[in-house]
Each structure stands twice: as C-alpha cells, then as structure tokens.
Amino acid sequence: MPIFICEDDPRQREQLLEIVENYVMIEALDMRVELATADPFELVACLADNPGHVGIYLLDIDLNSELNGIELAAKIREFDDLGKIIFVTTHAELAPVTFRYKVEAYDYIVKSSHEELRQQIIACLKSIDEHKAVSAEAKGQFVFKSGSKTRVVNHQDILFFETMPTPHVIGLHTHQAFYQFYGRLKEINQAIPSLVRVHKSVLANLETVVAVDAERYLLEFSDGQTCPVAISKLRKIQKMWQAQQG
Amino acid sequence: MDTYLTSRWLLYLAAFFLLNTKLGWLKNGLLTASIFLTLQLSPIFRDALEPLLIFLCLFLLTYLQLKTVNRAVTFATLPLINLAISRFLLQTQYFRGLSLWVSFSVTLVMLIILSFSEHQLLKRLSQKVDNLIYLIPLAIFLGLYYLQMLDLFDYLFIGHDTRLEIFNGILVAVMILFVFTLILVQHNEAQVIYQEQLKARTQIDREYLQLTTQQYNEMRKFRHDYQNILLSIEGFIREEAWQELTRYFQKELSTQLATDNQQFERLILLENANLRQILYAKLAAAQVMNVNVQLELTEAIAIHHPDQLTLSRMLGIVLDNAIEEVANLDKDASVTVAFIKESDATILLVVNDCRSQMEPLLILAKEGFSSKGDGRGFGLANLASLQARTDILVNTEIVSGIFKQEIIVPEWKEGVGL
C-alpha cells in the first residue's frame, strides 16, 4: 500500500516520515512511502496520475494552503474511496465539537510528544495491516449521505427504515440513533436484500426483532422500540421471523 | 344504471385512494377523467345533483385530510371546473361529430393539460395571495353550477314562474350561506395559525427580556467589582507597594479576565436575527440554571432558508432538552452548540452529556412521553411535527452518555428571507 504524507512544517514532516519508514522496515510491511509533501495540490495531482490505488494518508489539518486538510481529505475520497485517511493534528485548530464533526469519518491522531506520536502511528499502521481494505458492503455496512456527510451503519445495528412525512425522506432507526436522509425504501432493499418490507412504509431487519405482537400488528425490538406490520403480511412475517430464530 | 352505480363507487374509492397521498396535477387530472367517465356512463348525465355530490364528497375528504379550507376547496372545485371547460370545448364545432372513444381521449388530454397549467398557476399565485385564492375557483364553480341549475329549473318548471323563482331564491341563498361559512372557517383557521406564531414569538420575547434584565444585573455587579479593584490598586499605588500590586494583578485579575464569558460576543457571527435571539435567550436561561453551554461559531454563518420560524423553534426545543438534561446531572456536564458550514447545507449541532440509562429514541419521541413525569416533554414529538413538512433533516444519536442532535438545513440558492 502506498503511504502519502502531507504536512507543511518540514521538521514535523521529517519526523512523520522517519517514524513511518522505520516501522515499515522493521516489520517488513507491504507498505511504502510514495510521497511526503507540503503541498496538498501535489498530492492530488499524484493521485490523479495514478488512479486505482488504495492508500494510507497522513494529513495535517492546517496546511498553509488554499486547501486545508479536511478539504484535501474530501478530494482524496474522490480518487480513493477505500483509502485510510488519518489526521495528525492539534485540537486547537478548530473548536472541539466542530472538529470532531468534520473529521468523524476519518481517524485522527493528536500531536503530542514524539514518543506518543510514534506509538499512535504504529498502532494505526498495525491495525490497517491487520484489516486491509475491505469495501463497506463486504463488511456488512450500510452507507448513506445525510446532509453533506457520509455515514456508515453496521447491518446488525439496523432496526428498521421508514418513510417520513416529507417526500423522499427516509428515517433509519438503530439502537442508538435515528438518522434521516434522502432515499427510497426500494433501493435500500436492493442494497441490503436481507431486510424485509413489513409494511408499505417500513423496511425492517428481522434479525433485530425480539417479538411479533400479532394483536397490535407490531414488531418489537430489544430496547422496546416498535414498528408497524401490514395486516396482510403479518402471518408471512411471523413465519419468516420464527424460521430465522430457529 | 348498474354500471353507473358501480362506476360512481369506483370513483369515490379512487378519491379515497388518491387523497391518501400528496395531490399533484397528474392525480387531479386522473380524478377528473374518472368523473368524466362516470358521467358519460350515466343516463342522468345532466342531473345537476351529481357535480354537487362530487364536490361535497371531495371537499369533505380533502378537508378531513388536510384540515385547510383553502386547499380543500381548490382541490374539490378544480376537477369540476376542468370538466365543464372540456365539455364546453367538446361542443364547439372543432370537436363535433367525433366518435365516443376519440372524444374521450381528447377530453383526457385536455383535462391533463388544464390540471397541469392550473397547478403551475396556483404554485405561482399561492406565494402572493395565499389566504383568499380559493375564492376564485369556488366562484367559478358555483357560477357554472348555478347556470346548470337554471337550465334544469327552466326545464322542470316550464310554465310555473313562481316555483322557478322560489327554487332560484333558495339556491342562491344556500350558495351564499355556504360561501360565508367557508370564509368564516378559513378565517378561524388563519387566526389559529396566527395565534400559534404569536405565542412562539412572545415566548422568545419573554426570554429575551429575562436576558436583558440579567445582563443589566451582571453589568451592575461588574461595575461594583471594578470599583473595588480600582480602589485596591489605588491602595497599592499610594503605598508604592509594586510587588504586591504585581502579585495582586497576576493572581486576582488575570484569572478573572480569562473567565469572563465570551460566548455572547461570538453570536455576532450568526447573521440570522431570529436564531441569534433564541440562542441568546437559551444561553441566558442556561446561565441562570448554572448549566455550562459552549458556543462554537468559528466563521460567519448566514442560513438562507424560507422557514426561519420553524428553524428557530426547532433549535429552541433541542436546546431546551439539552439544557434541562444537563441541569439534572452533576457539575462537569455541559452542552455544546456548534454551527458548521458545509458546501450545500448548514449544520446546527447540539451535543450534551446525558444519563447513562437513556430511554431509546422512539420512546423518547412518543407524544406525551417525558422522563420528567406527566404533562411535560412534548419536545421530541413536537420537533418531529415541526420538521414534518420541511426539507430540514434531524439526526439523533446517543452514544456512551453523549446525546447528539444534528439539524441539517439545506442551502436555498435564491437567498430567501433572513
């Protein structure tokens, strides 16, 4: 895997380069540093010239350039949607909640002492090497866009999808969250065929259902949430669910 | 007669079905076509009761569904008007002598064109004269209906002039009564909406007033402190105790300067007056409740979205929930409000600490549910109903003791209403 480093401070760039190269050499990992630069546009140009790679990117946020690290990450995603993007940064550059919101989709390492930095980078590279890059679908994840942000939810966390009163808006219920995004139940069902259309406006994950309430026409989930079932589909759903349980 | 009855029932069924979904020009056209078909099949085609029945049926159905006189009347009258127009056109010389199916297809096309253009026209008009627009189609419909009835009366009461006049009078009186009732109901509706808006506004104003009072008190306190500080400094200077003065400054004053609340100053970056006002009020309320609220506004934010009142009410509810939750927790808990500008949307992010045993979201959102006992906590259900017909999205997450609500406001290109 190619590794790209973008950091505008030359001393820190050297430091990063040294840590990464040493670790890759000692562990004999299948990785190499392709580019270490201060200029984000050079990185983008390099990706544009050699498309199709899955890389590892170590980026600073404040790059003293027209492009900051977060914008650079978005550009990288256009070329390499499976690559690992890791921000190496100080928290002070943005307000904390705003910062976390913007980099949530990526990993980040907080700049501190040299030794701590080294250990965090090593931990990151190690975990990348162990897991390699697998596409989101293969990992059993559902990917969607809410606002301008891409989000990922594991299949086993999904309780159900439902249509919202606003046209084309879908609500996704999980144990811990409720997301809204633009989409269609039919397309979601194509992306995750294991889900079942239990109602005109509900697409449920039967694996997370704990009980079928045949009197009130409801599916119950483990944390007490419920969703409606169409009367005409109740028997079929009940059978499917029981087959899955057994 | 049997076919006629069946098709009439089919029509009403279709109306039920169509009314269940959002009404558009295509459905409007289809509905009209089915009415036309029904009437074609009917041996009492010219029976004047039929349009009235259909009108009342459509009106009631739509009204029950939408709860607005304006749209119900428009929806119930337009198909019938379209019908009258296309029937009139069919009788002109261009279309005379066509076979039944050809004339039916021509009618269908005409109806769809009419529905489409009316839909477009209404869309334009409704932005300007929203409340009374329904009177136009209503007047046209009643006018056409009246003419039709006159025909019928002429035929029925040939040679009975007094009867003709009596029925004519009754008809006109009923029509006028009907229109007046509609206007009254519509007016009432508008009043209710206005009252609601007024209530929201007063609530915001009241909180604002509270805030200014509190700020005044703070200011007084500050002046008092300030005088004391100056007096102490004066004491040090008089005694020429420079070292004590330095120590006093470093120890007492520099910390005080740092802890001064700068949250309010950052509100300047928010260009939407209504949002600024509600944030102001909630930040102040939080201060009174001793809740720590952090405001993250790192760049100038201007939200261009037509539904500003809804937006500020949504933010108000989310903030209320967050502040109340944190007020019941220990001292370290806090609320953070962040405004984040993205390329095609602005995100209002409210993050707060919460109980570790938080109820699942769907249950929280149930109407009338409150973790604080009965009669409270309509917050999340209210939020859902406010958001229901807008393009604003809301995401909610509870992850390890952190409650996070995200209001996503899409950018409106035309730069409407700040």
Outline type of chain A? elongated
Instruction: Please state the average pLDDT score of chain A.
Output: 84
How would you classify the helix and strand content of chain B by structural class?
Answer: alpha+beta
N- to C-terminal distance of chain A: 44 Å
Low-confidence stretches of chain A: none
Quick description:
Chain A is α/β, with parallel strands linked by helices. Helix content of chain A is 34%, strand content 30%. Chain B is elongated, with a radius of gyration of 32 Å.
Keywords:
heterodimer, A: 246 residues, alpha/beta, five-stranded parallel beta sheet, five-stranded antiparallel beta sheet, 7 helices, 15 strands, 30% strand, elongated, B: 418 residues, alpha+beta, five-stranded mixed beta sheet, 13 helices, 9% strand
Question: How would you explain this protein's 3D organization?
Answer:
The complex is a heterodimer of chains A (246) and B (418). With 246 residues, chain A is of the alpha/beta class. Chain A is built from 7 helices and 15 strands. Chain A is 34% helix and 30% strand. In chain A, the strands form 4 sheets. Chain A has a 5-stranded parallel beta sheet, with helices on both faces. Chain B is α+β, with helices and mostly antiparallel strands. Chain B is 66% helix and 9% strand. In chain B, a hairpin with a 2-residue loop joins strand 4 and strand 5. Chain B is elongated, with a radius of gyration of 32 Å. The chains are: A alpha/beta (246), B alpha+beta (418). At the A-B interface, helix 4 and strand 10 of A face strand 2, strand 3, helix 12, strand 4 and strand 5 of B. Strand 10 (177-182) of chain A pairs antiparallel with strand 4 (393-399) of chain B, so a sheet runs across the interface.
